[in-house]
Design brief:
MAM_domain-containing, single chain, Jelly Rolls, mainly beta, MAM_dom, ConA-like_dom_sf, disordered N terminus, globular, MALR1 protein, four-stranded antiparallel beta sheet
Length: 164
Amino acid sequence: CFNSGSSWNNCDFETNVCKFLPEVNLQPGWKRRNCQSGMGPPYSDHNGNESAYFLSLSSEMQSSSAALRTNIFLPTDEEHLCQIRFYYWVSQMSGTLMVSLQKHSEDTITNIWQFSGELRNQWNINTITINSTEKYEVIFSGMVETQRQGASVAIDDITFSEGC
């Protein structure tokens, strides 16, 4: 059960990209947009608000994949696991969204969650719990097949628990 009080830090993309996701970590394929941007689906944020902003990766971009890195988080402990909750949209059959973890001492990036497009175009919600004994970064990666019309991957309202 989520306590939406002050212990959760929310990234809703309404004004910019929040402090957990520095602008420098936003690869060119991601675009902060809303329905009025005229870029194909989704046509609203996860609340159905057409003027609200979200991040999206669209097949109209030259880049077919892009990553979004968080700041470096401190190690977690039993009392403070890092939970990251987010809304995601993956258009049918041609998009993939992955969440990965990169620990400070390793070059390798470990995939911890992945979703590929299903038949229905809708916003979904997911929560990931991270347990790490060392500093780490979380990476959201979107991919779309650029040949497809209206193919998109979008992400909205990324919320970080106080353990992050």
